[in-house]
From TrEMBL:
Lineage: Bacteria, Bacillati, Cyanobacteriota, Cyanophyceae, Synechococcales
Species: Prochlorococcus marinus (strain MIT 9211)
Family: Belongs to the ROK (NagC/XylR) family.
Any Pfam family hit: ROK
Source organism superkingdom: Bacteria
Protein name stated in the entry: Carbohydrate kinase FGGY N-terminal domain-containing protein
Amino acid sequence: MKKQGELVFGVDITETYIRSVLFDLDSEIFIRKNTEPHSSLMPGAVTVALSQLVESMDPDSKSNTVGISLSLPVDIIGRIVKGSHELPQWVDVPFVDWLELRLNKNILLVNAKGSLHLNSGYKCFKRLISHTELSQELAVACLALEHFRI
């Protein structure tokens, strides 16, 4: 049986899909799931949908870290979505605060651009790409793993 905190989530959110992965520290992938985002793309609806996704993939709450890649600008400390002209409802959204309250997990939020590159030297990332196809959700999960140093 796995101990609390031995599992990590990676989630890639775009306007057209939400891709998620749950794996352990030995790089064994347990669950992959692709879903469509809520049609409104409102921050609250995406927060609820993402929380439900995490809870459905990890009903026993064995993970304590979630890395999220978002195709919108994020503040320098990775807590607030800065928004865009195309999605004005996402301006200054405290997305990490909302998710931490709902999930009681460590949340790392990054802009989708660059998170694959940032991971290139990490042990987790190198182990994962030797076992599976490279993906944004795996990259951000490894980044979160390194960031919180489980």
